[in-house]
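chain below, 272 aa
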Amino acid sequence: FAKEGTLAHELAELKLQKYFFMTGMAKKDYSIKLNEIKRNELWKDEMDNYTDEYVDHVKAITMSFETAPFIEIEKEVDFGEYAPEAFGTADTIIINKDRLYVIDLKYGKGVPVYAENNPQLMLYGLGAYLEYSLFYNIQDIELHIVQPRLDSITVFNISVTNLLDWAENVVRPNAVKAFDGVGEFNPGLACSFCRAGAVCRARAEKNLEIEKEMEKGPILSNSEIGEILKRAKEIAKWAKDLEEYALKACLKGEEIAGWKVVEGRTSRAFSD
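prediction:
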């Protein structure tokens, strides 16, 4: 899914480059790059239409201004001033007068993502402000998330004053905790995106704590069954993550007690 999202971003970037900066890209070069994307094994024709929705949204914003705005596409932004070594890539940055826009394409369809108080997008807005505030008198920041496969476009407005207050009082102290390895673990939806998700002890304890909550007796009650079914989905995801981690560890020569890697066996038969 991550690779599919990366491919969609490459296509969206190419389309925006063509629209806004065609003078620097020959039609032949555009066709070559487009064909390279389409030859990718993850390519689907629907990707063309979905990325068009994102591109159209960006174009609509720029066409609403009286004069041409400043635009950056796939711009790396640095917010290390508040979170050491931290940076990200903003899909599209637009600046018009005293307003900064950060527009993010979310190609996934499994989890809805919204712009309101979205920490990732707020950090991108922070990084963009830190870079361009020297040249533009930015007062307000408008954050957009376009999730075309869920037919969703959400917008969140925040003043520079409030954003900097959040950066100072939320981002900075939490970044210090992260570097010091302290703070509270909070297992949940984000675990599926975390590189430590498979081996995180807090996640394991949460998934196994159901035993403590079980009622006594030989037969499960209906309330217990309902709770177990809710937990089962997360436990299944966790088990899959553990299997993938264990397989990679074994292939690297590490030992997982009671498990080993064996070569797969393929059975072949004549069909004619």
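The radius of gyration is 24 Å. Helices lie at 2-21, 27-38, 46-63, 119-132, 160-180, 201-208, 210-213, 222-251.
thats it, cya
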